[in-house]
Every structure is written in structure tokens, then in C-alpha cells.
Backbone:
């Protein structure tokens, strides 16, 4: 991972936007896998890596320009609790990237997949400390450890993924300014690495810990290695307002990939279906008009929704700019 240029920018220049994938774990669950486990989708790195590859291919077939690896909840601490060695853990983290790169390269090797597309990216997912705790604290940021301990938690996985074959890192569902600062420090220490910084938010203006999104967006904008600022695993109803908040900071591409809007019980680890879950495809055009550079989905957003979102994105003419889809 040693690109000199922001890997997201070619998509924005060519299309006006980049389309991300959707919820990997949700897609795996829809195909019959039980992920009620502290490792979540990373469980299948041990049990069924081919299922992860198939899910990546499903999102690429749906039109995604970027697929995100299964490393969100793959941590040294989590795997150590399963009795794995340090060498085995490093191998699994590397595997999470290799699966995605192989899926991307397989997809791109088919010439019929290339018209109207750029070669898709692979982003190595780095979830927050709360994801490892598996208690819902990635939506509060209430951790019982200081910045030094938090940096120590993230460091080993960061080292492996930053040196992997991924095009960039995806720091996702960050609930607090404190964790953002730790991750930005690690990014600074790996100068050949690009990463996007994406936050979980409680409403239309604030991160899960209560910090204003505008403040952390400005903080992230100060790093030349931050490829984009994102909002993810947040209710879609808040996204338009959050895009406006993020735009108050110095310019960086903005990504919006919310969850489906269905409520989640972090204790029972179950989703509650709701007949009023927003249609993300219907909201795509609104978000682009507000200035977002990338869209996609998080939990409970499958390949069919990503395919529908692509049809709602404006076509891009290099001379005239965007035209109606």
C-alpha cells in the first residue's frame, strides 16, 4: 500500500462519485451463516473463507467500486481469546485482504465487467475498539481505557493491514474524537498509507460520544493521508444533515454509507425489522446533490440495494458534468 495519490480521486474525477459496497456480515447471514459470535464476520476467516469471497463478488457484480474486507472485527485480542498464535492471527488478517483482492482481480479479469467501470478498490476495514467488545459500545465510545491503551490495541492490526495489498484502510464506525485521534496518530506513523475515517453518529450533527462531526472532520482534514471523511452505521434519516456538517470542514471527499435504518439490539445481537426502513436508493440523489462523493451501505444493506443505488447516481460527462441517471 504505497500509492502516492488518493486512490478515491480517480473515481470522483471520472464519475463524480465512488460507489461503496454494503453490509458484508448481513450478506453472509442472508446466505445462511450464523454470525452471532464475538468475531462476527471474521468468524468465517476461520470457517469458510470462500463465503466471504462470494459476498465480495456479489457486491462487485452489483456495481460496487470498492469492497471492504472482513477485518472489521478481526483483532489480535479477539483471536487470542480463541487460542490462536500471533503468527496465525497475522495470517488471518492478511487472508482477509487477500480474499478481497482475489475477488476484485477475478471480477476485473472478465472483460465484460469493464465497460463503464474503473478497476475497483479494496479497503481494509479497521473497526473501533467497541467492535471487539461486542457490547454495542461502538455506538457510545464509552471505553474503560486511555489513549495509550487504545493505541496499543489498534497497533498490531494496523501494522499488518497497512502493509497489505489493500489500496487503503477503512477506519469505520468511529464513535469518538478520542479514538479518531488515536487512529490519526497511527496513520501519521505509516506515511505510505491512505485511510478514510468514518464515524458512527447519534443524530444529524454529533458523533456517538457527543462530539460535533464538524470538529472531527476538521481534525481529519488536517491529515494529508486521509482520503475521505465518512458517516457509516448511522440511521439514514440523519445523513443529509451530517453531510452538511462534514462540508463545513476543509475540503475532503465525503462518504455516506448508513445502515438500513432498522433497530439493532446489541445485547441480543438481533435486528428488528421495520416496515418503514428508508429506501437508500431513493436517498442517493439527495445526498449527491448535497455534496457527497461516495455512497454505499452498512448493516442490512445487501447487493440488490447497492445495484439500485448505482442506477440513481448521476452519469458524469467530463465536459458537461453530471447528467440525470
Residues:
Amino acid at each position: 500500500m504505497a500509492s502516492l495519490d488518493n486512490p478515491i480521486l480517480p473515481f470522483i474525477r471520472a464519475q463524480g462519485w465512488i460507489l461503496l459496497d454494503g453490509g458484508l456480515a448481513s450478506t453472509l447471514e442472508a446466505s445462511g451463516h450464523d454470525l452471532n459470535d464475538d468475531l462476527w464476520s471474521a468468524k468465517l476467516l476461520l470457517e469458510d473463507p470462500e463465503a466471504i469471497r462470494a459476498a465480495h463478488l456479489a457486491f462487485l457484480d452489483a456495481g460496487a467500486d470498492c469492497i471492504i474486507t472482513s477485518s472489521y472485527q478481526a483483532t489480535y485480542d479477539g483471536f487470542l481469546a480463541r487460542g490462536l498464535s500471533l503468527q496465525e492471527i497475522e495470517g488471518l488478517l492478511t487472508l482477509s485482504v487477500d480474499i478481497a483482492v482475489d475477488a476484485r482481480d477475478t471480477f476485473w479479469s472478465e472483460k465484460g465487467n469493464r465497460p463503464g467501470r474503473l478497476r475497483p478498490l479494496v479497503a481494509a476495514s479497521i473497526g473501533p475498539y467497541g467492535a471487539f467488545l461486542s457490547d454495542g459500545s461502538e455506538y457510545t465510545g464509552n471505553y474503560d481505557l486511555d489513549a495509550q491503551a487504545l493505541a496499543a490495541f489498534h497497533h498490531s492490526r494496523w501494522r499488518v493491514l497497512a502493509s497489505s495489498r489493500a489500496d487503503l484502510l477503512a477506519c469505520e464506525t468511529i464513535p469518538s474524537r478520542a479514538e479518531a485521534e488515536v487512529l490519526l496518530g497511527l496513520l501519521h506513523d505509516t506515511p505510505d498509507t491512505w485511510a478514510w475515517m468514518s464515524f458512527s453518529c447519534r443524530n444529524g450533527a454529533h458523533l456517538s460520544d457527543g462530539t460535533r462531526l464538524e470538529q472531527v472532520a476538521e481534525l481529519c482534514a488536517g491529515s494529508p493521508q486521509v482520503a475521505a471523511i465518512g458517516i457509516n452505521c448511522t440511521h439514514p434519516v440523519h445523513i443529509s444533515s451530517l453531510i452538511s456538517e462534514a462540508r463545513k470542514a476543509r475540503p475532503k471527499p465525503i462518504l455516506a454509507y448508513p445502515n438500513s435504518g432498522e433497530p439493532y439490539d446489541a445485547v441480543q445481537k438481533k435486528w428488528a425489522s421495520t416496515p418503514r426502513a428508508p429506501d437508500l436508493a431513493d436517498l442517493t440523489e439527495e445526498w449527491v446533490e448535497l455534496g457527497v462523493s461516495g455512497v454505499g451501505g452498512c448493516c442490512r444493506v445487501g447487493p440488490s440495494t447497492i445495484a439500485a443505488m448505482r442506477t440513481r447516481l448521476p452519469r458524469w460527462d467530463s465536459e458537461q458534468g453530471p447528467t440525470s441517471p
Remarks:
- The mean pLDDT is 92.
- The two ends are 34 Å apart (CA to CA).
- The chain is about 40% helix and 15% strand.
